[in-house]
Structures are given as structure tokens and as C-alpha cells.
Amino acid sequence: MRRAERFLALSDFEAAGRRHLPRMLHGFVAGAAETDQSLRDNRAAFAEWGFVPRALADTSGRSQEATLLDATHAAPFGIAPMGAGAICAYRSDIVLARAAASAGIPMVTSASSLIPLEEIRAAGSDWYQAYLPGEEGRIEALVERVARAGYGTFVLTADVPVPANRENNLRN
Ligand SMILES: Cc1cc2nc3c(=O)[nH]c(=O)nc-3n(C[C@H](O)[C@H](O)[C@H](O)COP(=O)(O)O)c2cc1C
Fold first, then answer.
1. Which of 136, 89, 86 is nearest to 112 (CA)?
2. How far is Cα 172 from Cα 166, in angstroms, rounded to an integer?
3. For residue 79, how far is its CA from the centre of ligand 1 (angstroms)?
4. For residue 118, what are the CA distances in angstroms to 28, 121, 146?
5. Which part of the chain is the FMN hydroxy acid dehydrogenase domain (predicted)?
6. Given the DSSP bridges, would you call strands 66-68 and 153-156 parallel, antiparallel or unpaired?
7. Of 17, 88, 109, 131, whose CB has the highest number of CB atoms within 10 Å?
8. Ligand 1 pocket test: which of 25, 87, 88, 110 has the largest number of ligand atoms within 8 Å of its C-beta?
């Protein structure tokens, strides 16, 4: 059996990641702020959502396609921006961009990527996520560079006006 075929669900990756990564890196990826209370609350809130079964429906032309911002994607989800991913896997952003492009889903290049944004664009990512710097001149330079690289969608992260208190990073 090929290695990748042993991973049937996302939680299978989590267990393997815990074994593979040094504690500090695993904590950076899997941990959240302070006591992880918001992380647990978010998981619990999502667990409340469910599917409504529809029996005796025509299943011959099933599709998960979803249209967002004028583009049609193969599934209603994509790969969220993950900063500093390349400290966990070799040039991870390039790997993720290629995988997302071949699966027909969006992959968001992180402002905190360790790989130049132009290279990730060339590997297939069309969305760029930014934390806006405070000064207008720097914002303009950033937007121009992202546009010049050919990204079609500019994603603005608005929920980090100050950094979170990530105690697990300090502990590890
Ligand atoms: C290791 C890691 C790095 C992240 N880096 C970024 C980032 O650079 N920019 C950003 O906007 N969000 C970042 N996030 C937040 C994710 O994009 C996402 O919004 C968050 O994990 C919630 O989605 P989830 O429930 O699917 O994990 C990061 C999350 C993780 C776990």
C-alpha cells in the first residue's frame, strides 16, 4: 500500500504529524491561543452542523462544484493560508499550490510564507492573503507586487490587529 493511501481522514494526518514533527513545530501547527478554549469551541460549533439526507434522488450526476467570486471550484472549500509552512515540510507552499491546482480548489498563499509569492503563484495558487502593514506606502507596494505576480484574489486577514498569546509556542 502506498504511504498516502494509509491516510483516509484528516485526523489520520494529525496523528502522523504528532509522531513526525518536533514538539515545537507540532505545537505551532496544532495548538491555538492560551488554553485552546476557542479552538475547542470552534470544533464544537462546527460539529453542530449536519447533512439533511435526501433519499430516492438522482445520483447519476453528482457534483460538489461551488462558485465563489466568479470562479467555479471543484469543491466548496480550499486550502487556508498557513504561514511558515516550510518549517514543517520542504517547500510546503509549492506542494500545496500544485495539489490544490490539480484538485481544482483554491489555495491561499500566506503573507507569512517562507517562499517568494511569485514562485507560489507559478505553482498554481491564485489567492494571496495579506496582513496589511500600517503605512500606506507599504500597502501600495505590497498590492502592486501581488498584482504583478498575477494573483487574481486578494484576501485580507482582519482578525489579527495584535498577535494572539500562543502560550504553547513559549512552552515548547
Ligand atoms: C499553522 C497555521 C498557520 C496559519 N497561518 C496563517 C496565516 O499566515 N495567515 C492567515 O490569515 N491565517 C493563518 N492561519 C489560520 C488559517 O488560515 C485558518 O483560518 C484557521 O486555521 C481556521 O481554519 P481551520 O478551522 O480549517 O483550521 C494559520 C493556521 C495554522 C494552523
1. 86
2. 10
3. 9
4. 25, 5, 8
5. 2-172
6. unpaired
7. 109
8. 110
Distances (CA, A) of 53 to 7, 50, 91, 156: 26, 9, 41, 36
pLDDT digits over 80-89, tens only? 999 999 999 9
CA gap 149, 109 in Å, rounded: 12
Nearest residue by C-alpha to atom 30 in ligand 1: 82
Closest by Cα among 170, 160, 104, 87 to 129: 160
The domain limits of the chain are 77-161
Q: pTM here?
A: 0.91
pLDDT tens digits, one per residue of 141-154: 999 999 999 999 99
Q: Which atom of ligand 1 is nearest to the CA of 81?
A: 17
First to last CA, the chain: 35
